[in-house]
Batch of 2 targets.
Target 1
Amino acid sequence: MPAVKLNLLDRAIGAIDPARLTNRIRHRMTHAMIEEYGYPVGGSRNSSLKNYNPPANTADEDINDKLESIRGMSRDLYANSAIANASIKRIKTNVIGSGLKHRSKLNAAELGLSDEDANVMAREIEREFGLWAESKYADITHTQNFYQLQALVTANMFLSGDVFVIFCNREDSDMPYNLRLKVVEADACKHPDDYLPFSESGIINGIQYDDDGRPETYHFIKASNSKLNMHSSRFETVGIDAFTECAGINRKNVLHLFDRERPGQRRGLSILAPVIEQLKMITTLTKSELDAAVVTSFFTVFFTSDKPEPIFDGVQEKVETDKNGNESKKYEMNLGHGSMFELDAGVKPEFANPNRPNQAFEPFFNALVKQISASISIPFEVVMQCFMSSYSASRAALLEAWKLFTVQRKFVEDEFCAPTKEAFMLEAVMSERIYAPGFLYDPRVRKAWCASTWNGPGQGMLNPVQETTASVMKIDNCMSTLDAETSATSGAHYEDNVEQIARERAFMKKKGVGIIVKGVAVNVSDKKDDTNEDN
């Protein structure tokens, strides 16, 4: 029970109205108990929180003024910190890999098609989309194809906090589609009057919003300003409408990809933001330990000599002149591998024992990396690619990492791949390269025509025999499907596998080569033709 001391005012009130004093003391004791036993309160009597009283701000107030600094530090760590670099690359490699491959999945019932007709149309859409997506014409800079842009967009979203993709149009003689994607870094979206933190016109951090908080216009630095410092206070910007009407469809012009963690949050934060300080310190610590180990590895021999000149070439002579014009010679020496130097007579070298390599470095380093890994939701084993524990522990780490990669992949599919596919389909239908009845008039029909799956790299296997057996058992018990298991294990499409296997078996049969069916060898050259089996 917290103690309550009576002050002078309490004593005066008690002398006049004891009941009122009792009520005051009761309320003060209740407040003291909340501070001592309830949730911690900033600035409370708790010594560890006495000077800790952060304000409760909106998302914009907490983020906007820090964005530029956080981006700069995150990018520097990505370039110079092994752990930061590895974390971003693990995400890019496992979420995107060589690309989330497109597969059209038309809803036959919604479109009023037979399964066979739906399959024919789906393959036709895949061929048309592949014509555009697999070429570098998908990129406005003609540098990457659509699947490579997926990796670029994903990596920059997690590194810088957000990234923009602008839908552009450009005609090229050997590409029937004019849709082009322009990927823009977060810094290029700037307030037209950058010297003001907020604009009365509703523009915040380069984006103009309506009264409901919906983006209306994005302001980007002009391409002609690309040689200028993006952090300069004066530059020209160009405004791009968030949406444009095309054939009666309100199509997006700009995709803004970021992880929204708070209501009202308008810009994203780097995934490294919470651990910037730890990453910087651990990078400095690693460099210091490495430098100390390198110095320790040097073996240098010192000699004394009565001769006036150095006897070893390793000593560098340096002539210095004082203010009176008198010259004096000095000799410099640098530690090195197997170096030998002479010393002046009477001078003896002394060596400090640095005790390197430090035996306690690795446990301490790993402990810090585990905290960083917990913050970015990637297990330590996956970040370090170090699976030294048991099979169960290693598999648990991979499964936990795969949860994060699955969520991030779904985000990229919904926020980048799907809108791009819809923009492509709109152009394909309007140019009459794809016949899709109802696409321009009914949102439900349009969604059915755009339905797709995006398969990325598989999860991988630690024990292929056990995990394949488990997949077969799930399929046999209707707990999963052939398509789902194929996608999860290898990232491929089940139908593509079946078609390829059919071609391979037909080829083997033609050549009279035996095949293996469920572990049993079958000599197809000795089998009767299917047409004669019933006779």
Target 2
Amino acid sequence: MQIIVRKVDSKQDLPFGLLLLADETIEAIEKYIYDSDVYVAKECEESEGFAVFALYKIDNSYIEIKNIAVAESLQNNGIGSFLISEIKRIARSSKYENIIVGTPDGASGVIGRVGAFNWMVWSIDVPVSGTETWRGATADE
């Protein structure tokens, strides 16, 4: 399968159906999505997107993956790994030094994959509410 990754030009074209695969509610997505660069993966220019990721610039050195999702019917086919490669390519070409993945501590599947990408745990934040949240990882390249 050929995969084309394109930046979403209009915030009116955001693929909320795909974004909801990685976030629980539209409200949660809307907290970051309008300040993020959103990319959609598809087979050709005319086709519907089957995967998405959202990148948020923290500063000139750090970019955060706020959302990354693949359509359920296409999961476990290496598309997520391909998206990570694309994110790393985008980060390098934009001169970012670190990539952060923010995810709740309950996302054990995401945390478990950190080692597969040769990344390391960066920090664990404990908000005032007392709920522990795993903050992210940085690229080891």
